[in-house]
Amino acid sequence: MPPLSDRDFIKTAVSYLYEARLAGQEAVIPDLPDVWDLWYVCYRLWRPAGALGIAGCGARSGCSACRKLVARLTSSSPPGYPDGALGGCGDLLRWAVRMRSREPASPQVDCLGMALSFALLKPAAPAGAIRTMLAARYRIAGRRELRLTPVDVTRLYPDAYGEEFLAWQAGYLGSGPVEALMLTAPLDEPMCARAVRSEIRASLGVTAEPENHIHMPDSPGEALANIEQFFGNDTLREQYRRIELTHGQRRLALHRSLLGA
Q1: Cut 0.85: pTM above it
Q2: Which of 86, 108, 159, 217 could form a disulfide with 223 if both were Cys (CB 3.0 to 4.6 A apart)?
Q3: Mean pLDDT for the chain?
């Protein structure tokens, strides 16, 4: 099995920590590629490093100023967001560019099926048509209509970068109501959410950006983070234990293998 890229390593670490926590298992991860990866893991799981058991996790790169800032951000509950920290050494911007790269991810990371998933229908999206397409694959187990706050947007996309892009994204996603959908597939037919998302966007005639109508997660960890953000920790725990626990054991073994944990 080829080694993971740094980006795929972090996506796998998030999935591993999320699923281990929900399954009641201890998780130990190796040193991370970059100190900002530690911040991302904590922010994605919405918990301080100490609560995740990774406060002592090392990072192979990162200047002293970034290490101090990340230590502060990841010690609070919930973790802090690095507002205005894109200047200075430039490490955060370089990290964010790598995380948002369009290079294909490893299939072991992005194509793992889950019976439990999530979709966010963005402002002005053809919601009825999208729900119909989703219903061919999933049951809609939960639905919320809301207006996204700036914190909602940064939590949804913590690896977004650049002042111009952040301003456009906040303006677009905050321009009207959105629909958050918790989805469940048949237990014996876990779905790859990324593939479903691509099919829906193709059917709607939209490309990857800018106004692409629907967000769906690229990995198990992102799906679990999205569900917790919009439906709460109690709902996530209940749904995971009812729907995903058996599938999750296989994914946990794969996560450990990919991480060398």
Answers
A1: yes
A2: 217
A3: 88
